[in-house]
Amino acid sequence: MKIDSPEEYLESLRRLERDVYVLGEPCECTVDHPLLRPSANAVAETYDMGREPEAEGLLTCRSHLTGKTISRFTHIHRGTDDLVDKVLMQRLLGRRTATCFQRCVGMDGFNALYSVTFECDEAHGTDYHSRLQDYLAWVQEENLVVEGAMTDVKGDRSLRPGEQVDPDMFLRVVDRTSDGIVVRGAKAHQTGALNSHEILVMPTTAMREGEEQFAVSFAVPADAEGITFVLGRQPSDTRKLEGSPLDVGNPNYGSQEALVIFEDVFIPSERVFMCGETDQSGKVVERFASFHRQSYGGCKVGVGDVIIGAAQLAAEYQGAAKASHVRDKITEMIHLNETLFACGIACSSRGAATPSGGYMVDTLLANVCKLNVTRFPFEIARLLQDIAGGLVVTMPSERDFANTEIAPYLDKYLRGRAEVPTLDRIRILKFIESITVGCGAAAYLTESIHGAGSPQAQRIMISRLADLPEKVRLAKRIAGIED
Ligand code: SF4
Ligand code: FE
Fold it and tell me: Which residues pair with 231 in a beta bridge?
């Protein structure tokens, strides 16, 4: 693996020459920008094998393409064990970072494309699958971060892609040459876009006949000509610019989203994995979404572990840990968190092989997993705020604690239990502030609702996959009702 440490990964980002805008200004080096460094640190953790005894076995595996040891983030799942290990890896990294470590979207993208390109070649006589395999072997060898880009900006939601006043509302092919295609459009809310070496684009919805120009999938270097990134803001993000890490709550790690604009970008044929095969586009969306809905049963659970620890610590620091209602609330948080984990493991264990040899999760259970994720983290966050108390949003700043005039008063009056340093109490409350209403809430809460599709998308899938007529038949048989 070419990039084989967090340091080398950060260095590799410095070498990218991209058009990036941060707060209205061009940004030459995202890694060294204080607003962005925590998000790069979170991705860098995916390159660190050494923290926990089980880490290396989860973070690396064997490539079925080359036989070499590779990062699991570049792997095609070859069995249900792989699917389970993926969830375990995500929980582990959620525990390390307490945020979104961004690298799963590309992994879920090329796992979806792996099976669909195989089926597309069988149906249409194309050669996308071998192109994807060649691309993957290179990504594995270099150990790159690939951003999965699916969500188009969509314009007027009541209109199909081809009906929009501005046809660029859905990313599309605007020209074809003898050796490739030219694309235009934009992808919104792109997780980890500024921390990725490559972008893997997929269609945003199932396309129909007549919408061939929008049924397109390809990979492109993040610093290709014509691509522009605009950083998305997060609550309280400028606290990272104040030089007061205490006020950031989770100063070392963060998440990152951006708008990615493609202005007539050339894609060579060998990196094109779908171009006009409308009948295949819906499968990519459905399979990618299912993989990413599985993912949340790992990553959000890992963050949940940190949150539950923070709740317990806050209670201990203020002398409330033994109160029965507090113990009850913490038990409830654990129950909710482990239920999400159970869903992530269940949809993985019930996975099955596709004709390509790549494994797919159980789609119904993956959707159940994600629908729970749209609710339970909010209840966990509510209980966390309940236990932590109102001080979470009324604490003075780090600068107040550094001011010798008032610091002794703050130390005296904001103390909980006498033996706990006041600043330790404030530290954990600042983290709780961040994860529930600050920067960290973008990854733990908003992403839990809308990441991998908003709740309604999961409801549609659940009602479609549940085989209701079969359940009716069962009930009739038990009740002795004749057809
Ligand atoms: Fe990975 Fe979770 Fe972030 Fe998605 S939300 S990229 S699954 S850490
Ligand atoms: Fe996500």
Answer: 258
Of ligand 1's listed atoms, the one at least distance from the Cα of 295 is: 7
Catalytic entry in 198, 211, 257, 286:
257
Catalytic residue among 292, 343, 369, 398: 292
Mean per-residue pLDDT for 424-446?
97
Domain ranges of the chain: 6-279, 283-467
**Secondary structure (DSSP) of 240-303:** GGTT-HHHHSSTT----EEEEEEEEEEEEGGGEEEES-HHHHHHHHHHHHHHHHHHHHHHHHHH
pTM above 0.85, yes or no: yes
**Ligand 1, atom 8: closest residue by C-alpha:** 100
The 10s digit of each residue's pLDDT in 34-87 is: 999 999 999 999 999 987 999 999 999 999 999 999 999 999 999 999 999 999
Which CATH number does the domain 283-467 belong to among 1.20.58.220, 1.10.150.240, 3.40.50.2300, 1.20.140.10?
Answer: 1.20.140.10
The dotted CATH code for 6-279 is 2.40.110.10
Return the C-alpha torsion angle 304, 309, 311, 316, nearest 10: 170
Instruction: Tell whether the model's pLDDT for residue 426 goes beyond 70.
Output: yes
